[in-house]
Design a protein that fits this description.
Blueprint: E1 2-5, H1 8-11, H2 22-34, E2 42-45, E3 55-58, H3 67-71
């Protein structure tokens, strides 16, 4: 399992001030999964009673993240 959590200190006026809420991100993961996109399965979207702040929990999937490599791919405009 993986906990995706936003730090309140960074969010307030920081780089996450214009980001979508993590609950929205979790919803988008669920929608992608329904279209057979290989994404991590959302297990739980945290609520204030959970004491974790803005967060959700997902399953781990096989593979690796390649964001930086993909943005440097020839022809990507980077």
């Amino acid at each position: 399992m993986i906990l995706r959590r936003r730090d309140d200190k960074v969010r307030d006026g920081g780089i996450f001030s214009t980001s979508n809420p993590l609950a929205t991100e979790a919803t988008l993961l669920n929608l992608a999964a329904r279209q057979d996109v290989p994404v991590a399965g959302v297990i739980h979207v945290c609520e204030s009673d959970d004491g974790l702040g803005e967060a959700y929990i997902v399953t781990a999937i096989a593979g690796e993240t390649r964001g930086r490599a993909l943005t440097r791919w020839p022809g990507s405009g980077s």
